[in-house]
Amino acid sequence: METKQATAIFLALSADLRLDLFRLLVKYAPDGLVAGEIAKYLKVSNTNLSFHLKALLHAGLITVEKEGRFLRYRANIPLMLETIAYLTAECCSGRPELCRDFRAASAVSAAVLPVCDSKK
After folding, report:
1. Angle at Cα 35 formed by Cα 48 and Cα 81, nearest 5°?
2. d(CA 71, CA 59)
3. Are β-strands 70-75 and 33-34 bridged in parallel, bridged antiparallel, or unpaired?
4. How far apart are CA 27 and CA 114, in angstroms?
5. Residue 89 in 3-state DSSP?
6. Mean pLDDT in consecutive groups of 10 residues from the start of the chain, 120 residues
7. How far apart are CA 60 and CA 6, in angstroms?
């Protein structure tokens, strides 16, 4: 991932509603949700929702597929994982003992963290 792409992703997620929207679609992956369901969950108007969906689509964070007369939106999970990898690729400069300390100090479940290679 290039810095320019990462910046576009972070910019798209910088609005509260877009972050909530993306997290909602991650929750409902891989099936996604149609626009009406999203509006109901987030309690937003269709016009406001449309604006934020376009920003996430432009950044590549979500995809859309026509289903009859509805549009189904899905989180781009591979891109989400690439973004996480981009953020953590150089963590602790190859010193896994530091990563272990940070992991212990965080509230994040070890099950969702990347494997810490202690042989580096």
Report:
1. 95
2. 18
3. antiparallel
4. 20
5. coil
6. 95 98 98 97 96 97 97 97 87 77 82 59
7. 11
Entry field: residues in the chain? 120
Q: Are 75 and 29 spatial neighbours (Cβ–Cβ below 8 Å)? A: yes
Find out whether the peptide bond into 30 is cis, omega within 30 degrees of 0: yes
Residues with Cβ < 8 Å from 84, sequence gap 6 or more? none
- pTM: predicted TM-score of the whole model, two decimal places: 0.86
- The CA distances from residue 111 to 19, 26, 87, in Å, are 23, 17, 18
Cβ atoms of 96 and 118 closer than 8 Å: yes
Domains of the chain, start order: 3-79 (1.10.10.10), 91-120 (no CATH)
